[in-house]
Amino acid sequence: MLSLFSIGLAFFVIAVSPGPANISNATVAMSRGRTISLIYGAGLSTGLVCWGMVAASGLGVILQSSIYLLMALKLFGGLYLLWLAFLTGRSAIHPDNKSLQVASNSKSHLGWFIKGVILNVSNPKTVIAWLAALSVGLGANDSTTSLMLGVIVCILVGFATNALYSIFFSFKGVMAWYQRASRWINSIVSGLFAVAGIGLIRSAFNR
């Protein structure tokens, strides 16, 4: 049975973790305001949808072919999550306070939306995140329809996460607090990645 909650939670942990897209969205929120950031975040989320369709297509083929391919995918996804845990844990030990600057002369809302789309579409590593998240709640007997429900959940989580970044970082003084708390935030996120990765690797051998 496809666990939509597990998929949604896994995707949220991946989506909310600090990365180029989230840092850029936070920067836009602080420098350009909430409205522009929400539009930019919607573009980022739309870019995620494109890679989500790619990931779902590949998983659909796997579901219809071999249980061993599914097991291999789960192992790959688990290792990817453990790698994210390592990177995030390293950031907690050696924090890097550099922020990503987003330069743009665009004054139109459409221009900011397109910038968000391009940023995520131009990052093919995003499809790996999709595969890892969907694999968390994926079973050998799940149908393509169930898989698409999982994709829809991830899409909703993606839009909600980017909106939260836009709203949260548009408040004054938030970035200063975030930089002070980044060590603890990264430590918690690293732990969540590790738990999810180990759980996914274990599920690969549970048939």
From TrEMBL:
On whether Isomerase is a keyword of this UniProt record, the answer is: no
Q: Which UniProt keywords apply?
A: Cell membrane, Membrane, Transmembrane, Transmembrane helix
| Topology term for the membrane | Multi-pass membrane protein
Recorded coiled-coil stretches: none
Q: Where are the transmembrane segments?
A: 39-63, 75-93, 147-171, 183-205
Task: Name its cellular compartments.
Answer: Cell membrane
Chief localisation class: membrane
- Name the InterPro entries for this protein: LeuE-type (IPR001123)
What name has this protein been given in UniProt? LysE family translocator
Query: What is the native source organism of this protein?
Result: Celerinatantimonas yamalensis
